């Protein structure tokens, strides 16, 4: 039977490609300014964060924490579980609820949402091909690219087939794999390695980097390696080799070899530029469109095209995607000649958190960007903090960085249980321009882990130059 495809055309002032965190925020920001804007997404709807990113990973981490408590004889407040996979399935049910709710909110956009693959055919035209093969041509004055990213699968491991998985596949499994090898100990590899181990899986993990989670502060790196190493069999600064042996895999690092059922690939993500066919819209396009991206304005070359979120490759975190989406919308409004009713969004203090319990957080300027002779480093440890002692978290560590001459806070590194709360407070303080002295004037409740902040501030103050406002 012959199949007939429908062709149609639509016009708008702007088109946003990608209905993830960046794209949705760009779309709604433009709508608030009265822009006639359309949203295109190839699916599945629900955002990467909710489907296969930060939300399912946190649900699985929570499940792992519950199972650990149950294994230690603690009563679970949410029910009785005999096997770890029951908690795993509960975590994925929470994921489905969150992703489904987001998908429904996106579908509620009605005719402003087009589902299909987008590709440029000219400087101001797109073709959107639906799953059924119907094509809609869109004409617009400006575009936001928010097509996200995908996990990297090294070519050497592609022959392993479905035994080599990324988080996209991990969160589709009905139960945690019994034996897992983890390649990469950044945020995702570290979080999932710890979660799977706490859920009862045998886990071996490796990374070429010398410290977990990209830690550069040597004191924090040493502590995190030792603390996490009590739970996770980690091999840092070494390459791993994975090969198929019968029905399983052999994971080898150094002189240690383990048989595993799956290998989790957490070696990075690749921005999704290829399918857009930008060569039809951007002059003198190099082999990688990302080379033309202005990381300050988010503009791709000189075209009225702006990239936001993971596709930009700029700090691929959810809150950064939100900010970039709003920035891209602001830039599109300028292209359209709309009056500047709001100021351009300002960059926020960099903030990253790895929820491994202990949390690993980095705020503001990273260690490697600091000038040692101009930087005061204030240190506080859990052994000197009452609440940390109560929690049996004496290893908690806070390192605060401040300018010796002015006392202004520059950044911090945290390795601590409940460290996420310390990181948020310090990110706000850095962005507000607080100094070692001004932050000490604010109240701190007793007994809290947050009391580590004034302790670290006092240590930093002793290192400031005489006469500095510390």
Brief summary:
This protein is an alpha/beta fold. Helix content is 29%, strand content 25%.
As residue ranges, the low-confidence spans are 73-78
Per DSSP E runs of 2 or more residues, the count of β-strands stands at 24
CATH superfamily of the largest domain: FAD/NAD(P)-binding domain
Can you summarize the main beta sheet?
5 strands, parallel
CATH class designation of the largest domain: Alpha Beta
What's the overall geometry? Answer: globular
CA-atom Rg in angstroms: 24 Å
Quote the beta fraction.
15-25%
Query: What is the total domain count?
Result: 3
Q: Assign the CATH topology of the largest domain.
A: FAD/NAD(P)-binding domain
Tally of separate helices: 12
Which whole number gives the mean pLDDT?
Answer: 89
Order of adjacent strands in the largest pleated sheet:
4-3-2-8-19
Secondary-structure arrangement, i.e. CATH architecture of the largest domain:
3-Layer(bba) Sandwich
């Amino acid at each position: 039977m012959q199949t007939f495809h429908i062709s149609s055309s639509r016009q708008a002032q702007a088109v946003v490609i990608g209905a993830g965190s960046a794209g949705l925020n760009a779309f709604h920001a433009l709508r608030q300014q009265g822009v006639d804007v359309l949203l295109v997404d190839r699916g599945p709807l629900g955002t990467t964060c909710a489907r296969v990113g930060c939300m399912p990973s946190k649900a699985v981490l929570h499940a792992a924490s519950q199972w650990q408590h149950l294994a230690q004889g603690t009563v679970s407040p949410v029910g009785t579980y005999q096997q770890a996979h029951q908690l795993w399935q509960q975590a994925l049910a929470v994921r489905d609820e969150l992703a489904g709710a987001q998908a429904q909110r996106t579908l509620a956009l009605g005719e402003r949402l087009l589902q299909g693959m987008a590709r440029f055919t000219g400087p101001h035209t797109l073709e959107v091909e639906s799953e059924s093969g119907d094509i809609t041509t869109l004409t617009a004055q400006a575009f936001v690219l928010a097509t996200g990213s995908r996990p990297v699968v090294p070519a050497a491991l592609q022959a392993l087939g479905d035994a080599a998985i990324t988080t996209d596949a991990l969160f589709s499994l009905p139960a945690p794999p019994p034996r897992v090898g983890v390649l990469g100990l950044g945020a995702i590899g570290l979080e999932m390695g710890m979660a799977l181990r706490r859920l009862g899986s045998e886990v071996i993990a490796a990374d070429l980097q010398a410290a977990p989670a990209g830690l550069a502060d040597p004191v924090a790196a040493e502590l995190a390696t030792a603390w996490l190493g009590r739970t996770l069999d980690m091999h840092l600064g070494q390459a791993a080799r994975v090969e198929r042996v019968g029905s399983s895999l052999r994971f080898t690092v150094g002189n240690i070899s383990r048989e595993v059922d799956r290998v989790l690939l957490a070696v990075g993500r690749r921005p999704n530029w290829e399918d857009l066919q930008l060569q039809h819209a951007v002059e003198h396009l190099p082999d990688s469109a990302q080379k033309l991206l202005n990381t300050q304005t988010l503009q791709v070359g000189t075209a009225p095209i702006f990239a936001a979120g993971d596709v930009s490759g700029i700090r691929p975190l959810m809150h950064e995607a939100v900010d970039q989406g709003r920035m891209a919308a602001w830039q599109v409004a300028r292209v359209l000649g709309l009056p500047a009713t709001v100021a351009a969004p300002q960059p926020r203090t960099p903030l990253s958190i790895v929820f491994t319990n202990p949390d690993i957080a980095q705020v503001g300027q990273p260690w490697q960007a600091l000038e040692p002779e101009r930087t005061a480093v204030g240190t506080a440890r859990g052994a000197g903090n009452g609440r940390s002692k109560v929690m049996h978290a004496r290893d908690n560590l806070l390192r605060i960085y401040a300018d010796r001459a002015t006392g202004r806070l520059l950044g911090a590194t945290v390795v601590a249980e409940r460290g996420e709360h310390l990181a948020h407070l310090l990110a706000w303080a850095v962005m507000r321009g607080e100094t070692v002295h001004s932050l000490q004037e604010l109240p701190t409740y007793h007994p809290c882990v947050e009391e580590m902040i004034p302790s670290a501030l006092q240590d930093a103050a002793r290192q400031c130059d005489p006469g500095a406002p510390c």
